[in-house]
Amino acid sequence: MTVALPHLFSPVTVGRFTLDHRLVVPPHGGGASNLVGSEDEFETLLAMWLPKATGGFQWIGGTPSHVRNPLPPGFEPSGVGAHGPGHFRHPRYAARLGQFVNRLKAAGATAVTVQMVQQGGKPIAPSATFSAYDDHRIAHALDVDEIEWLVREYGESAALAVDAGVDVIEIHANHDDVVQWFLSPLTNLRTDRYGGSFENRIRYLREITESVRAQAPRPFTYGLRLCIDELIDGGYGLEECQRLVEAFTADGTVDYFSLDVGNNFGSPSYVPSGWHDDIEWAALCGQVKQATNLPVVYTGRVTSPEQAEAVLAAGHADLVAMARATFADFDIVHKARGTNPVPIRPCIGLNECINRKQVEGLGYACGVNPLWAHEWELRDVPERTARPQRVLVVGGGPAGMELAGLCAEHGHAVTLWEKGPALGGLLSVAAMVRANVKYQRWIDWQVGRLERAGVDVRLDREANAADVLNGGFDMVALATGAVPRLPAIPGIDGPGVFPAGAVVKGLATPGPRVAVLAEDDGPAPMSVSDHLAGLGHEVTLAVQTAGPAPLVGKYSIGTMLARLVDGGVRIVPMARATRIEDGTLHLSSTYGHREWTEEPFDSVVVVAGGIPDDALWRELKGRHPNVHILGDAYAPRRVVWATRQAHALARTLL
Fold first, then answer.
1. Residue 416: its H or E element
2. What distance in Å separates the CA atoms of residue 509 and residue 504, rounded to the nearest whole number?
3. How far, CA to CA in Å, does 309 sit from each of 6, 303, 342?
4. Which residues contact 115 (CB under 8 A, 6 or more apart)?
5. Which residues constitute the domain of residue 459?
6. Is the pLDDT of residue 2 over 60?
7. What confidence tier does 419 reach under pLDDT thresholds 50, 70, 90?
8. Count H helices, E strands: the chain?
9. I want to staple 642 with a disulfide (CB 3.0 to 4.6 A). Which of 17, 146, 398, 428 is the partner?
């Protein structure tokens, strides 16, 4: 037993299986690949999940499986989980699921879950109403015949999964699922036996639960995934969740409960970003746990084994689930045991894993671990290079640190030149903002990684072409970052106008009334505004777009907006600055012809992204046979772009 984590590394029995530790990987990542797709898609999915089993996790959640929707011909559902035919009835499903389970168990898993989901893309619901403030599509209200059909479909679908060899069936009764809509008085407006009273609202879930248990071809472990508190006016709260748990415990149909917090309406999100505190809702979970004698799993912003130990030691849960923390580091369990001495790579809550998929249609990726969801890229790739090279990395921001670490770990002799006194680049500046303080965890991890890998780090080392060309390097990678951009607006260089970085670093002190002028589609304008509001400033945020941060998805934007609104930040959308004069902002409508001014401000803080610092690359290109550019030096983007580029470039040297 690991002495420091005695509760975490103690045995626990859940239903029909026993684990020797209490960390769980919950179901997630249904859009990362396709269980029933091509062979390549299936192998990609396996490549994403197998490292969790080899990394020491014994209870593997697996990818969610969607239940068929009773849709009329020609209706096309859209949105997250828009699966009309579902997964269970696919001709490849049973065989693929069996392979999935067998491969995970061969890699070390004890139990594998199928989570039954019916998010459905909003075609069906208990009532003809919407389930989010940012999505006003009205669903088809199910009639009793359709409900009864779905109850049978759940049972028959679960039987297919159990027959294929799965150990655990979990009903997804939260996270914008049709089942949750039945449970919530906010989305269940029915007046028949499936709506109104508490007993009526839980009837659909109860009938599903009984149908699944009754139709299973063999014994299995059975759980419910529930929201502890929707934390929204009109939704259900802690007391109703306690009643839910009491009711299903008394029914004797399930073996455990998996609990988290969040709603479909945006704040708080059920995929909490780093703006939330770690293990923020664990105490709420503990209150629900008092209502049952069955095992309870807590999920919600758990990023380290130490946090999991704290949850368990406080009696808030019997097991702790970690999803995004396993994206950052597959080997958490072994590292927590001490069998792998390398420190755990921390999840810092960027939420790029899901934002870029949802907003930009790009594949899943993790900003701090560029290998996650791309594990297949290392198939048949050696861990150590057969042709070591001398590599120079110029710039110690996210791209430079990641590239230097990867190259050194693969066996190259790496030197890193950083012109500043510390590593981290602009990310270290972002980490000074109160919403982003967790960023420093990853920077600190990278510093330790480079030391362990033997990278020759030279701080306060300005690079020039002559030194690079005379250094005898086989490859040169320029990760020189970006310089702050100032828009070409009259008055931008006047008194009281400051770049955001200067304010955050304490080099400039804004007055009491501050305008934040945003020309950046990411989270920076919001985090800077929140930071200033937290320091007591009266803040107005002017953005050119219809709303702040269009590149931040629904799973993060609600939390950010809530913080700004609660902090008194005034948001002015569709506002393009044309002049700054004596603290007055002259604005023009982005999409129309209206012009107006905002009242005089003591200071204007500019958040306008960056311009690539690529001068050295342009000077070296054609003069060195193997020179590369990456990160913001190529084109300013978010952290995940920088680390993914570093990963791709490092692979070319293997």
1. strand 413-418
2. 9
3. 8, 11, 19
4. 27, 61, 62, 64, 65, 170, 171, 172, 225
5. 376-484+615-651
6. no
7. very high
8. 21, 28
9. 398
